[in-house]
């Protein structure tokens, strides 16, 4: 058994049962080995959680790297939609990236300020480009990025807790709230909704 096989089993358990159902015993059963055999590849459950988080973040990183818009504001708009799509179409990978209580999870704001997150570094770069193009005032790019991330993740969490009457309502409120957040930092009017 390889580490990749165990990680694939952990992904399958996470996909089927979510974070609450993710146990070493269930992963071992899915991987067809004993829980003790798993410890040869993952020292403990924390190491498994870290690996799942890294896997989820890698998936998110590939999505963000595929955003093709050259204009920084268009790029940010595509990012916002990509995050929404990731949360809705790959909910357990999203959870692995952003919700798992993984011990090595990045900490706001210090880990992001020093570039520990490749995605946050891309976001900060685009915000700085938008600032250079006259879109944003003098607020630090990290502050803008953290505000966007916190708002987006908070709204996704509310949706997961059934705080919206429908997915359509959630999407509309998500897009409006994120737009308002961007507008609160912008010194120029944003393009109107599609």
Structural class: mainly alpha
- Can you summarize the main beta sheet? none
Low-pLDDT segments: none
What best-fitting shape do the alpha-carbon axes yield? elongated
Question: How does this structure look, described?
Answer:
It is a single chain. By secondary structure, this protein is an all-alpha fold. The protein is built from ten helices and no strands. It has helices spanning 3-17, 24-31, 35-38, 45-65, 72-89, 91-98, 110-113, 118-132, 141-160, 167-185. Helix 1 (3-17) packs across helix 2 and helix 4 crosses helix 6. The chain starts with a helix and ends in a 9-residue tail after the last helix.
What would a concise description of this structure say?
By secondary structure, the protein is mainly α. It has helices at 3-17, 24-31, 35-38, 45-65, 72-89, 91-98, 110-113, 118-132, 141-160, 167-185.
């Amino acid at each position: 058994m390889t580490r990749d096989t165990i990680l694939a089993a952990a992904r399958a358990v996470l996909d089927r049962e979510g974070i609450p159902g993710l146990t070493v015993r269930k992963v071992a059963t899915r991987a067809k080995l004993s829980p003790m055999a798993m410890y040869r590849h993952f020292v403990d459950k924390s190491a498994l959680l870290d690996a799942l988080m890294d896997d989820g973040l890698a998936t998110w990183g590939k999505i963000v790297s595929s955003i093709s818009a050259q204009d920084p504001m268009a790029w940010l708009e595509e990012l916002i939609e990509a995050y929404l799509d990731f949360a809705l179409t790959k909910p357990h990978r999203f959870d692995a990236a952003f919700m798992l209580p993984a011990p090595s999870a990045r900490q706001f704001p210090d880990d992001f300020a020093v570039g520990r997150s490749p995605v946050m570094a891309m976001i900060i770069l685009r915000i700085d480009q938008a600032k250079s193009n006259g879109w944003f005032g003098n607020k630090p790019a990290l502050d803008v990025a953290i505000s966007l991330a916190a708002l987006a993740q908070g709204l996704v969490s509310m949706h997961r807790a059934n705080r919206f009457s429908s997915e359509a309502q959630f999407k509309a409120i998500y897009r409006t709230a994120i737009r308002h957040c961007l507008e609160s930092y912008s010194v120029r009017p944003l393009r109107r909704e599609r």
